[in-house]
Amino acid sequence: MPRLIRLMLFSGLACLALAGVLFLTVPRNESAGLALGEDVPFYSLPWNDNPFYPGEITTADGLLANWETVPSSEFCAQCHYEEYEQWSVSIHAVSGPDILYETAISANEHAHDNRQGTEKIRWCESCHEPLFNLIGEVNPLPVVGPNDAAAEGTSCIVCHTAVDSEPLAGNGALTLAINTINDYEPALILAAPAEHARAMQAKTYNPLMGQSEFCGACHTEIRLPAINGDEPMHLQDTFDEWRRSEYADRNIQCQDCHMNANPAEYIAALSRGEQPERSISHRFVGINYLLTAADLPDNLVVFLRGGYPPGDIPVDTWRASLLEQQRLVTALLQEAAELTLQSSGNAAPGEALAFDVTITNSGAGHDLPTGPRDQRYMWLEVQVTDADGDVLYHSGWFNEQTGEVDPEAVMYLKLLYDEHGERITEHILFDVEHLEYTRTPIPARSSDTIPYSLTVPADSQGSLRVEVRLWYKLALQELLTYLLRLDLVVPPVLMAETILEIPLQ
Predict the structure, then answer these.
(1) What string of DSSP letters covers 228-274?
(2) If you ran DSSP here, which 8-state letter would residue 65 be given?
(3) How far apart are the first and last CA of the chain?
């Protein structure tokens, strides 16, 4: 063996040995957390002594996380680059920085011009920017310094230090052992990788990482009276929707679909009665196709996501990965529902034509739609044409120039109203006094049938063509037009379509 190689090998082994000694001899602190008053002065507690309230996220010791030592996802990427690259195009990576959230947060903070507007934002930040809450950054006075990890949205360290979850409480109800993990030094990680895997909550050591209860902590949103109102207001219940479904009975967890490398393919296999192989991807594929639209002009997707991801991912690689994410998102939406169209039989000129459209939630393990349903919604487009191609009936049109949807369409949307009965379209949840649905969301593996009818013109001949499309839209146009002041029309995604030819007698 050449002398240089022997020297390099010896040096490497020596470094590992030294790291091992350090790992065994460096004192393991019980907690690296910071105490209010002593370590973090001038911290506002308007309701109780819980520094994270009205958010439900907390640390195992109740102390603030140390803003100087909490590692960023970019730090984790030094060893876990593939996982980091996948995460970088996810919505988790920008759950805080994205411009839609940041603008809505600003609007909510000043809603009512109420007192403790900043402190109430801890309710939102517990899920969207949990580290901001945990280090004490959500405070009227700046009392802690900047931290790269805090601006990353739902980052590696947030999920991988979670030790408990209360999914029905929601609002970020995770308990993180973030203050008792001390092996952030690369040398210590290198010396004891198994210990690092155990500390970072690999699924082998912490089954919670693969359970829906973990996801439910944030995918349950309940506005507390501390923010507004006399009673808690349920705004999102995605976890409970799953808990009541047959997916829970079949032990199909949120992670099985949304962390699969190809969620649509996995769901299609489930629908065929198969038990497909599980795989893991940190893309966290959901339904936000706007923040993955790398083909938008003028770098608009970069603006919407709050900038480029940190780290050394080449821009071209990141954009290509975003487009792949968008493909996966679209495919997932198109695997969620099925349409069927039935008519009572032949139609006659001058008489009524009746037909039924049935939407089946065939692929989602929760209600359809789910999440913030005051923004994310779906609707039916139904068009009937005669043999000459003349339109006899059209419901559910979409204006591509203005983003307007036919207000008379069959729509699955949650309507929010303020204390004056005025409709809230910009996701200002602090102002909501009551809510109602245009149509009840469809539970998993359930269907909703909608009857349609029209009078066939007396001079019609041949046959009638009935076309039905189910559309999905990520956000109300008002959110972009009035809140963000963006000249951008949110395009819908076609989820399903079907056609029926009806002969005329």
Answers:
(1) SSSS-EEEEEHHHHHHTSHHHHTT--HHHHHTSSSHHHHHHHHHTT-
(2) P
(3) 92
Give the closest residue to 259 by CA, choosing from 300, 211, 320: 211
| DSSP conformational letter for 20 | H
Q: Please state the pTM of the whole predicted model.
A: 0.92
Encoded amino acid at 329, one letter:
V
Q: What are the Cα distances from residue 148, in Å, to 82, 118, 313, 499?
A: 20, 21, 17, 52
Closest alpha carbon to 424 in 416, 436, 414:
416
Q: Return d(Cα 100, Cα 192) in angstroms, integer.
A: 42
Check: CB of residue 504 under 8 Å from CB of residue 456: yes
Residue whose pair of structure tokens reads 């949120």 in the numeric block = 254
The helix/strand/coil state of 320 is helix
Give the helix/strand (H/E) hosting 189.
Answer: helix 186-191
Highest CATH level, class, for 337-503 = mainly beta
Of 176, 183, 189, 181, which is closest to residue 217 (Cα–Cα)? 176
Q: What angle do CA 84, 157, 151 make, to 5 degrees?
A: 80
Domain range annotation of the chain: 1-26, 31-223+234-335, 337-503
Q: What is the pLDDT of residues 25-60, one digit of tens each?
A: 444 446 789 999 999 999 999 999 999 999 999 999
Q: What is the DSSP letter of 196?
A: H
- Please state, in angstroms and rounded to a whole number, the distance separating the CA atoms of residues 348 and 341: 19
For 30, phi then psi, to 5°, come to -65, -40
Question: What pLDDT is recorded for position 310?
Answer: 84
Please check whether residue 248 is in contact with residue 215, taking contact to mean a CB–CB distance below 8 angstroms: no
Q: Which amino acid, residue 232?
A: P
